[in-house]
Amino acid sequence: MIKRVLFLTVGILSLMLAACETKAINNGKKENKMKTIELTKADFLKKIVDSLVSR
Fold first, then answer.
1. In whole angstroms, what is the distance from residue 20 CA to residue 18 CA?
2. What are the pLDDT digits (tens) for 3-28?
């Protein structure tokens, strides 16, 4: 009985570890396609107000 529980626990932990490693590998392959833009203070505030008004 104890061997069965221990085997099951080790199996579950192995699967969890494999899933975490796969996710970490996939996250590293993402490319950042965002571009930075320069805004003046007035442009920034206008964008904030416009986004709040459009809600």
1. 5
2. 888 888 988 888 887 776 655 555 55
